[in-house]
Design brief:
Helix content: 40-55%
Largest sheet: 3 strands, antiparallel
Shape: globular
Bound molecules: manganese (III) ion
Number of helices: 8
Strand content: 5-15%
Order of helices and strands: HHHHHEEEHHH
Distance between the termini: 12 Å
Length: 211
């Protein structure tokens, strides 16, 4: 996998691939410090505790996500967290990038344009009731689709999500991701997000997912 999804417990928090303040002004330094060190850190700790002595103990993170049952609440709630956040950090970039490569062609053919994809994605992100994520995924038949998931559910959770797939772009719309800077105005955070998307990473994930 492109991500560290093959890792097994005990899981770790990967370092940010840029400085805490690197995404300013779109995502502020304090939010990044708390989000990465405290929130992501807590999901990793809680997942390590949850899998210990369970049937999930010797599985990789991707295997846990694939197999987790809706009723296994502690694993369900904490397995998505490490994966989703590790992916999220990699999908952000302080350097301006633009959609290119194979994923650009697939976006144009699926949504007609990048702008139309962004509209669909923004609608999904703004439509999450409470906490959750918006995603661009590659479905099992290698199509692009925009979905959202509640809480820390993840598109790899085949027993739980309505539409399964490999995530290639994700946006965390929990209030902890934006409240310090954007307060209650999630829409402004969603708009700002597009300034820091790492399209090179999206293309890399897409290319791997359709192989
Ligand atoms: Mn988060």
């Amino acid at each position: 996998s492109v991500l560290d999804g093959n890792a097994k417990a005990p899981f770790e928090v990967p370092p940010l691939p840029y400085g805490y303040d690197a995404l300013e002004p779109h995502i502020d330094k304090t939010t990044m410090e708390i989000h990465h060190d405290k929130h992501h850190g807590a999901y990793v700790k809680n997942l390590n505790d949850a899998v210990k002595g369970s049937s999930y103990e010797n599985l990789s993170l991707e295997e846990i996500l694939t197999k987790v049952k809706a009723d296994d609440k502690a694993v369900r709630n904490n397995a998505g967290g490490p994966y989703n956040h590790s992916l999220f950090w990699k999908l952000l970039s302080p350097q301006k990038t633009t959609p290119s490569g194979k994923v650009k062609a697939a976006i144009d053919s699926t949504f007609t344009s990048v702008e139309k994809l962004q509209e669909a994605f923004n609608t999904a992100a703004k439509g999450v009731f409470g906490s959750g994520w918006a995603w661009l995924i590659v479905t099992p038949d290698r199509k692009l689709s925009v979905i959202s998931t509640p809480n820390q559910d993840n598109p790899l959770m085949g027993n739980i999500v309505k539409e399964r797939g490999t995530p290639i772009l994700g946006l965390d719309v929990w209030e902890h991701a934006y409240y310090l800077k954007y307060h209650n105005v999630r829409a402004d955070y969603v708009t700002a997000f597009w300034n820091v998307v790492n399209w090179n990473e999206v293309d890399k994930l897409y290319t791997a997912a359709v192989k």
